[in-house]
Amino acid sequence: MKEIPVGILGATGMVGQQYVHLLADHPWFRVAYVAASPQSAGKKYKDALRSGWIVAGEIPSDVAKLVVQDVADVERAKAECAFVFSAFEMPDKDMIRKLEEVYAAADIPVFSNASAHRGTEDVPMLIPEINAHHLDIIPQQQKARGWKKGFIVVKPNCSIQSYIAPIHALLQKGYDIKRIVVTTMQAVSGAGYPGVSSWDVIDNVIPYIGGEEEKTQSEPYKILGHVKGGQIIPWEGINISATCTRVPVSDGHTAIISLEFGKKKPRRDTILNIWKSFRGEPQKLDLPFAPKQPIHYRNEDDRPQPKRDRDTDKGMAVIAGRLRECPVLDYRFVALSHNTVRGAAGGGILNAELAFKKGYLDI
Ligand code: NAP
Asked: Which CATH superfamily is domain 160-337 in?
């Protein structure tokens, strides 16, 4: 198969660099285009990294010598790549939303990590193991906006990535979950680079991340929703109470979850079997970035741990542990996922693989 040239918007940032790193040996996609702020435009990629290369390994040599373009130069992107991964920041979310729309209108599909379009009713917010079918809305999105080949797909906030797959697996088997109380312990890489100052976070836990609890509570509703009449109708069958904290961990968001079932409460071994056997569309399609097993369970009392478990299944799996009865709700457990891999660049790549395999990329 001929490699597909792809672009990365915000390629110099924390998530952008993770894209460059993860795509280095991709069997289908090749990084052909990198873009960032006007301050970086015109420089070679390796020279534009103001804080250096901050992810694993070395800068892939073919990307190091690419000249960084201005994110606003949509025509140039159109000439050089088939679609883009969007991971750029701007002072105002509205500017990101509008620029992503300009790309889509210019026939360039956008796979976004930004939150700007997560609330847009006809934009799918994908965790492909859960709601791959939300891609069905793309023809309606294109028709409503007069776009021909372009479209926008987003991925959710990294904070929900660790707990929503185990919850969905149980719902899918007919176990009605009524209430969830979740506390997240989120890695510093989730705030970009340099992010939180070392003075603030070392020897500390920060009990507030602006806007994070709202996203953690609301985004699952859209993901668990259904497509009807050109919109994604949210499913609000669960009450979610979230507290989001920042902890001195480099990568890997941990969530501590207590949950309450409706009429039917499964046995502990039933839950473990459901999680172990859970598979979704990426596994059926054998997508290159799909974890072989989306939910791994660790039996040790002191796992999962970010340092030891975040790279499980290429950093694309959820790792659960400590499932036990809860004296207040029904069960409680701990879950972990890699925030800059599954929760950011790896998740974006999986979305693009799914769209390609499903025939939504006109290549
Ligand atoms: P970051 O490290 O701060 O990188 C920001 C990127 O945006 C850089 O490439 C930067 O280019 C570019 N940029 C900044 N100002 C710009 C402007 N005015 N015009 C055009 N480009 C501009 O941020 P990040 O952590 O990679 O996050 C990127 C996006 O992914 C955000 O929307 C974030 O919410 C989302 N996200 C992050 C994570 C995570 O774990 N970090 C997880 C999920 C989603 P220069 O280098 O030229 O300034």
From this structure: Dihydrodipicolinate Reductase; domain 2 (3.30.360.10)
